[in-house]
Amino acid sequence: MASFFTSRLFFISLALVVIAATLPLYVSGYVLGLLTVAFYFGVFAMAWDLLFGFAGEVNFGPTFLIGVGAYTAGILNAQFGWSVYLCIVLGALASVIAGLVLALPALRVRGPYFGLTTLVAVLMLQNFIVVFADLTGGEIGLTIPDVITINAGANYWIALGFMTISAAILYGLSQSPIGLVLQASGQDPVQAGALGFNIVKHKLAAFIVSAFFSGLSGALLVFYFGTASVGTVVDVAVGVNVIVSAVLGGRRTVLGAALGAIFLIVAGEFLRPTGELATFIVSAVALLVVLFFPGGFLGAALSHEARS
């Protein structure tokens, strides 16, 4: 970790955060709103990368954890009138509990079955939302009566601060002894187990951490949107965006996942006038990155810096 803090990329990242913090002083509310959403998606992607990039487990259902946190927070506020901040904390806690319940059996299966288990969890959550429409708002969505703030600049700073703190924590964890064990177990679980590491225990810890940040970010996002719906926090397409963001930014970089999310959200929005062509262009860029830069944006930059 020490080498990162003395690298050019660290100082570039620090400069970017400082510049980003000043944007509300001279950009429009539209741009701030777009970046606010991108920052929350950045946390989604970083949390996903911790589980896939380091633990080696492909979670095809990141929106299960996101959706549980988002809907728990939204329901507690809309149906019971609880305070926003308490709802956010309880949303994150609910996501951790749901993640624990899902991970305990899922981590004991190998290969594609783990990914299928997480994907089925998303489909079950979608079905739950539709069946219990009186509680969840169903397909229409749940209107949230309270928001953190209506000030665009304040919302932006909250999202930026949250993403920055999350990035520092998740990156620090990835470089800790636990992160090194996760890397070993992800690359060669048999060898890691032979060395005496408890593979399931460490992967379970990674899943719980991923669930916490996913749920917390999901809860914050619904109090920014003022609504919770399948299309915004649970849909499989949302999960695909999270996965593509992490792959674009770079596997096992954590920070790159956030960059990938910002790129994906911003590019998708500015290409919106092109209609369906926007999806094609973004997908083509993602495919080219996977084929020619499998390490992603940040992975390629780190490799270049190491060579130089």
From TrEMBL:
Coiled coil: none annotated. It is a multi-pass membrane protein. Keywords: Cell membrane, Membrane, Transmembrane, Transmembrane helix. GO terms for molecular function: branched-chain amino acid transmembrane transporter activity. One of its GO terms (cellular component) is plasma membrane. InterPro entries: ABC_transp_permease, LivM-like. It is found in: Cell membrane. The chain crosses the membrane at residues 30-51, 58-76, 82-106, 113-133, 153-173, 204-224, 230-248, 253-271, 277-302. Its main location: membrane. This is Branched-chain amino acid ABC transporter permease.
